[in-house]
Amino acid sequence: MDIAQNAAVSMDKSGIVEALRATTSSADQAAAAAYLEKAAELVGYAPMLIHFLMDEQLDPAARQASVLYLKNFLNRYWDETEDECEQVKIRIAEQDKQVVREHIIDCIVGSPEAIRVQLCTGVQSIMRADFPDKWPQVIDKIQALLETTDAPSWLGALLVTHRLTKLYEYRRQKEKAPLIAAMHRLLPMIFQRMIAIMDNMTQEACLLQKLVLKIFYCLVQYSLNTELMSLESFSHWVEVFRRIIERPIPEEVDQLDDAEKTETVWWKRKKWALKILNKIFDKYGSPGQVEPMYAQFAETYLEHHAIPTVHTVLTLLHEKTTGKFVSEQVIYHALTYLAAAVSHAKTWKEIKPYITEMTAHLIFPLMRHDDDDEELWEDNPEEFIRFKYDIFEDLHNPESAAANFLQNAAKRKDILPTILQYIINVLSTSTDARDIDGALHIVGELAQALVKHRTYKKDVEKLLEAHVLPRIEHEARFVRARACWCVKACADASFTNPHNKTSILKRLTAAIVRRLVEPNEELPVKVEAALAIQYIMIGQEEKARECLLPYIREVVMEVLRLVSKTEVEELTGVMDKLIEDYMEDVIPIAHEVAIELVNIFNRLTTVEEGEAMEDHTITVMGILNTLDNILSLVEDHPQIMAHVEETIRGVIERILVCHSCDYYEEAVSLIQSLIATQVSPPMWGIFEKLGQCYMEDGSAFFCDVVPVLHQYLAVGYQGLLENPQRLQLMLEMIRMALHDMDAGDEVHLYAAKMLECLIIQCHPHVDEIVPTILQWAFERFHKECGSVSGLRPMLIVVFISSFYCNKELTAQVLFNLLGQPAGNPLDWLYNQILTLYKDFEGVHDRKLALFALTAALQLPAELRPTPIAQNPNEVTKKIMHLFDSLQKAIKAIADMNVDSDEDDSETESDASGDGRRHIDQDLGDSEDEIDEGTLEYLEQLAKSGRNGDKSFKTYYGEGDDEDSSDDDDFDGRFIEETEVEAYTNKLDEDDSGFNVFVSFKTVFEGLQTADPNLFAQMTTGLDESEMNDLKKLITVCAQNEQAEQSRQVAQAGGYAFNSDAGVPSNFNFGDVSKVHAC
Fold first, then answer.
1. Among 170, 176, 312, 163, residue whose Cα is nearest residue 248
2. What angle do CA 1065, 1068, 1069 make, to 5 degrees?
3. Listed GO molecular functions (predicted)?
4. Which of 276, 401, 598, 881 has its CA 20 to 30 A from that of 774?
């Protein structure tokens, strides 16, 4: 059959089989795929694929293609509720779905493994959409299979159950109800089947056991349902896991090589059993450190299971010390379990007698440089470095588990001296380079225990001098690297006489620098040396400065070369620290540094033809951040800045022209730094490229662009006005964002803020475009607003800013926008202000709202907006509310800054002591180690349970309360500035003369004589509390007026007035007998 010429597709079995077979051939693959895509639209397609994959008469290629197409078909089209499915025309007929649901599990039972794996993915797609509502029968089917005595039926049942538990694995407890209901039926049966095959060590039986373990792990990974599992059943399960760890591995496995042994089901079975026991011990087995609902489980586990499990794990690890094979993942989980057991006195007493033997014969060998390390270093030093600094490599690395165990054990009384004695003996007597490496490794892992321990901290310096310093020059390259690493680990040790030329700190620093700058030194050694320098700078601060100063230029340039060669993310941190600590010394070479960084950037972001694209995103981001730090360094040195700017502009242009969206944030930050004080002509070229990039990438990029647009507007508004095309480009970017209804309210909020800034910053040169701006704001205001509550008030602020700059123009524009109404065109604006008065947030927006209300009071009666004239008393109350919330916002921001300073001080003091058990206080054999972080979490959890939502309300506020005058109880919204408040304009400057307190006092005072009737209306009807609040407001306004006068006099060289002086009581608040004069 010629697939390419077959235009009409019918449900032709032979044609579909041939098409499936053709998908395995590169020549006909595209045509076959197109044919099958058409066939997929027909009823009966999925059942036919099931028929094909189970047809043993078909060749394997056609069967395998059938199951692959079925899996993809189910994944793409089964769930019709998913968004992507709304855009496709294929709908699986319900009759086809019924056939698939009825037969797919039987297919799993009867299929070979290659097909079974794909079917399991397909059944998971079905259960995700249909369980439990449309396919409750799946549990009946699983139960029926488990009730048989047929191993393939058990396997199919367990595979489907595992997929079901995976679907619910990461869901919250209350969302797991369908799974829990199912497992109430299935788990007891699964347990019985597990017991039945426990003694069967065949590969088939162990595969079933492994599946049971994986199912159980999914059930308990994040929570343990106490209704599903009683204490008795919990104990039975735990004993099963321990027995699995005890079971010997079949002798035939010994014939395999180590890599093959690790992959056998027998070792994987032990791994999963240990993984579960670790999870149980960590989350449900530590009395006093678990959630209240698990308290009984914790007591039961520690009392009845922890000690037998410790002995089982110790026996397993003993096999490793005798030369028998134990897989790395099993060692990792076994040591992780013992590290947790060390924290409990009951289990620690069982481990303690074996500590010396474990250190010498298990931990120490794991910490040594081994053949795999040597091979990787020899073959690919760069990969060796990346492997060592890849945090994901530590996840199941026995070396990291050994270090964790050692660190926990060292907290116990008399253990640190024992370990230290052993290590010092190795360093003093052994000439084996690998032994030296292992010993130095343990010294480094115990460094924090040593440098903070009352007994040992004073001797760390001697330890470094005697055993680490000489090894920095060792003939073995990996020992040199380890010695540098060890210095890094001990970098915050106490050093005596650091200013002495022969001090240990200076000698260590000099030796580390030699390793870094030595041309023939190996890359891994250089990387460790560079990181050691960074840690010395952090740990020794001023002491380190004197030691490093003579080498600073060499160090900086060598670190840059290392960044280029190794792409180790941590090295950019070294560079940043050098720049931070040696600003004046780096400034003369800042341009050289920038050039080198740009060269690295260009290399990492350039792909030669034929080369595979590697992901260097993290490294590149680090380089761009370092370039930003360079700009901050030279901002006060115009000549150097000019050269650096020229170098960095190329990087920004490349990011924008290539639309490298991963680096937009960094590019924006670089532009901000380059135009921090002025906008050079070439930077206007960058502005144009930024605009072009934005126009092509769309409004989603707008929030990233806003900081730069604001900076151009704030610093270079004159250059913006000189070139109409630049102004037009900025306006177009804002318009595009504001009119894109798919962009969301947050984007629109920032767009409105930019419009306000543009009006204020460029007044009076933009009067001709103000009508257009106000039209945009007006149109957006009358469209739906979503979750961002500040959008409507922000749009009104755009009108107020225009009103501030040009009242007549604003009134005329509103007159046109409103269709030339008969009444006052300002009525619409003031209606919105008075309606939204509670929604104005932050300092800036409240000030503008108050300005608008104050300005309306100044207008002649015939021009005064109707909402102001009709209800002056309500206007007064709303003005008072706005002033009250404004003062609270100002106070909250000031308090937040004070709190931040206090937090910094507390952090510093916490470094020296926090009242908890210090590291130099050894943990006695009868004491349990308390995890302070866990305790705090549990206490907070308990508190939340007692208070319900009270803590949430206390933190975030319960809403405005006009009657509250307690500063401690104001709405949580006052705690922080608004999202857009950071984008300031001329009105926010100290010398802007824009002071709503002074303005209100002046206007309110003037009303007594200029419009006594309005004044009386504004104050009549206020109750005693409101009158007191008004008096307080007038007092605050007077103090602000005096402070403003004082500031002006001080700026002129005079003296400062006393802002606490009394306020004259010369206001008459209406002719109402019950209202007293101020």
1. 312
2. 115
3. small GTPase binding
4. 881
CA 175 → CA 230, 593, 717, 845, 949, distances in Å?
A: 21, 55, 55, 43, 21
What confidence tens digit (pLDDT) does each residue in 542-591 have? 888 889 999 999 999 999 989 888 878 888 899 999 999 999 999 999 99
Cα separations (Å) of 66 from 10, 51, 96, 111, 1001? 17, 9, 16, 13, 83
Give the model confidence (pLDDT) of 627-642 as tens digits.
Answer: 999 999 998 899 999 9
Which residues make Cβ contacts (< 8 Å) with residue 577, sequence separation at least 6?
Answer: 534, 537, 538
Instruction: DSSP letter for 930, please.
Output: P
CATH 1.25.10 fits 374-563, yes or no: yes
pLDDT in tens, 100-142: 999 999 999 999 999 999 999 999 999 999 999 999 999 999 9
CA distances to 668, 752, 1036, 1037, 1076 from 1069, in Å = 54, 39, 17, 16, 8
Domain ranges in the chain are 230-352, 374-563
Question: At residue 459, what are phi and psi to the nearest 5 degrees?
Answer: -100, 0
Query: What letter does residue 249 receive in the DSSP assignment?
Result: P
Which runs of consecutive H residues, i.e. helices, occur in 522-680? 523-540, 542-548, 552-566, 569-581, 583-586, 590-604, 617-634, 638-657, 664-674
Answer for the pair 159, 146: CB distance below 8 angstroms, yes or no: no
Tell me the whole-structure pTM to 2 decimals: 0.77
**What are the backbone dihedrals phi and psi of residue 412, each rounded to the nearest 5 degrees, phi first?**
-80, 150
* Ramachandran area for residue 225 (φ above 0: left; ψ -120 to 50: alpha; else beta): beta
Q: What is the pLDDT of residues 1002-1031, one digit of tens each?
A: 999 899 888 899 989 998 888 899 999 999
